[in-house]
Specification:
The chain is an alpha/beta fold. It contains twelve helices and ten strands. Strand 9 and strand 10 form a beta hairpin.
């Protein structure tokens, strides 16, 4: 948060300087042009007394000066867009120059059993003073539901981002089915993962295309996925059924319907490892009930990793890992952690005290 605040302050300073310089550009140009015109007039008057210039020459010179002022002002006006374009070009070329994603090893992975293991995993963002993850070790058995709990900045999201190899650990290793991730082909690793978050990304296309998400559309499988996600009634009400376009980012759907569509997408993918980023945190009670029912269908028989923001949603997890400063400080079932009266119990009671009474 301190780094974010410092960068925001710097950005605000740059924006203020850019605004001030842009606002001063035109008045300053007009002021300098006026001074130049006054100097020319003074010189012309002095020369006219000694017959060194003619009226026609004087008028032509002054007219040329007046005509050149407008193009100069336009040149100044394009300075800011030009600078923004240069900055954008630097970002684009910087992205192009980024190293390609690791190709991974040559080992194929058709379908994982679902065992996930972290062994002494450490990770830092750039030259950060404090590592985000510190010697993190745990194992999730096939079919187990494992939840990760902790305050913002504890390392939950970073931990999850290491699994599809968005980043690689700076130390330690991650294994799927007792084989290091780096030994598998990257495309095979990512094909084993399905992700459902509270921020659903949808496209201006049909419901079927959004469920298939780049795969070949199998209408029977799409219907099954929609039914499992409790979207059958919605499809029946739409004029074109599953072929109905949902608008940019699903603007024609409610929040709960968008979440269930994301769940249908995960069901369609049928990956053995599921990652949930609190898919029900921003929904009303009725929508949450439908989404929770769809999640229960999705989680059956799958290894599930849950990033938990509301602790009431993970009470039935097989295991809960409490993270603090990138380390596991507690782990166990919900009831066991409450009995320990440690960090998890503090977070749980704090959330329940802050909830309004209805």
């Amino acid at each position: 948060m301190k780094r974010f605040a410092a960068m925001s302050t710097r950005l605000r300073g740059y924006a203020m300087r850019m605004t001030v310089s842009g606002a001063l550009a035109q008045p300053l140009t007009q002021f300098l042009a006026s001074i130049a015109l006054a100097i020319v007039l003074a010189i012309a008057v002095l020369q006219s007394t000694t017959d060194q210039t003619t009226i026609g020459g004087f008028v032509a010179f002054v007219t040329a000066m007046l005509l050149i002022i407008s193009p100069l002002k336009h040149l100044i006006d394009i300075n800011q867009p030009l600078q923004r374009g240069v900055t954008a070009a630097e970002l684009i070329f910087g992205l192009i120059d980024e190293p390609a994603e690791p190709a991974g090893g040559g080992r194929a992975l058709l379908r994982a059993q679902g065992k996930v293991e972290f062994q002494q995993v450490c990770f830092s963002y750039g030259q950060a003073n404090a590592p985000t993850l510190r010697n993190l070790s745990f194992t999730v058995a096939p079919g187990e539901v494992c939840a990760f709990v902790g305050q913002s900045g504890s390392g939950k999201t970073t931990l999850i981002n290491l699994l599809p190899r968005f980043f690689d650990p700076s130390a330690g290793q991650i294994l799927i089915d007792d084989v290091p991730l780096t030994d598998y082909r990257l495309t095979d690793v990512r094909s084993q993962l399905a992700f459902v978050s509270q921020e659903v990304v949808l496209f201006n296309d049909s419901i079927a295309a959004n469920v298939a998400y780049g795969q070949t559309i199998d209408r029977v499988r799409v219907q099954h996925a929609l039914a499992a996600a409790h979207l059958t009634e919605l499809i029946a009400e739409l004029p074109d059924g599953m072929d109905t376009a949902i608008g940019g980012n699903g603007m024609r759907l409610s929040g709960g319907q968008r979440q269930r569509l994301a769940i249908a997408r995960a069901i369609y993918k049928d990956a053995p490892i599921l990652i949930l980023d609190e898919a029900t945190s921003a929904l009303d009670a009725e929508s949450e009930r439908h989404v929770q029912a769809a999640l229960e269908v999705l989680m059956r028989g799958r290894t599930t990793l849950v990033i938990a923001h509301r602790l009431a949603t993970i009470e039935r997890a097989n295991r809960i890992l409490v993270l603090e400063a990138g380390q596991i400080v507690e782990q166990g079932r919900h009831a066991e952690l409450l009995q320990q009266n440690g960090r998890y119990a503090q977070l749980y009671h704090l959330q329940h005290q802050s909830q309004p009474v209805t």
